Every structure is written in structure tokens, then in C-alpha cells.
Amino acid sequence: MFAPTLTRRQTMKTLTQTEVNALAGNLFGVLASLTQPAPEPKRARVTVNVRIEEYQFNHGAKPRGKGTWAFQLEGLEEPVWFKGTFSQAKAEAVKFARELARAAGARVVDVVVLP
Fold first, then answer.
1. Pairing state of beta strands 108-113 and 47-51?
2. DSSP per residue over 21-60, as a string?
3. Are 2 and 19 in contact (CB under 8 A)?
4. Which has more pLDDT, 71 or 21?
5. d(Cα 63, Cα 95) in Å, to the nearest integer?
6. Which uninterrupted H or E stretch holds 104?
7. Cα dist. 72→3, 23, 61, 90 in Å?
């Protein structure tokens, strides 16, 4: 866009109507961008891998049923615990892991079902 500037050697001149309109357009564009909220950033897609091998090795069966379930999330030292059916607990663990991964900027995270 056209924006006239003056150097030290130039003297002030009378702006033409076209130059005034260009300056006004620039000014209103800047003001409009300041008053509008910034767009929401897109949430990164996170892949969560739920691993049951350790549980299967110790119990000889896939995890199922109702109870208190322990999950080891990548990046955390302590396991997290959820109550309910395995499906409910797994869904909560995946949701929690996904939130942590987004906060850390990770794309893939592993969740291990503890025996």
C-alpha cells in the first residue's frame, strides 16, 4: 500500500485525495485488527498408544472388569489411578495423557496399564 514518508531533505507537501484515502485505509485496517480477538490456535492432534502387554504378562488375560486401575503415563514419574470399569478408566487416562501431551507439545504418547 502507498504510505508517503518524508526524509530530512523533503519538505512537507499537500497530500492528494488518493494519498489521504490510502493513509486512512491503513489506519482503519490497523485499528480494526486491534479490536478483533486473535483467532484460536488449532489444537495439535495427539496419538495415544495404550499398552496392555505388561498387564497381560502378569495376569495372563486382557484387562477387564470393574475396579481401580493404574496407568503409567509417559513423562510422569508416578502412576495415575482411575476407578470404574476398565473402559471408563482407560478413557479417562487417554484424556489426561492427551492434555499433558498437548501442553508439552508432544504428538505421540504411550500409556501403560500397570498390573
1. parallel
2. HHHHHHHHHHHHHHHSPPPPPPPPP-EEEEE-HHHHHHHS
3. yes
4. 71
5. 19
6. helix 86-104
7. 59, 60, 19, 11
Show the CA angle centred on residue 105, arms to residues 38 and 89, nearest 5°: 110
| More confident call, 21 vs 92 | 92
- 8 Å CB contact between 53 and 62: no
Contacts of 45 (CB under 8 A, 6+ apart): 107
Q: By CB neighbour count within 10 A (0-12 exposed, 13-18 middle, 19+ buried), where does 34 fall?
A: exposed
Q: Is 68 helix (H, G, I), strand (E, B) or coil?
A: strand
Cell numbers for 34, please give them: 486491534
- CA end-to-end distance (rounded Å), the chain: 66
Mean pLDDT rounded to a whole number for the chain: 84
Q: Across 6-10, 28-32, 64-68, which has the greatest mean pLDDT?
A: 64-68
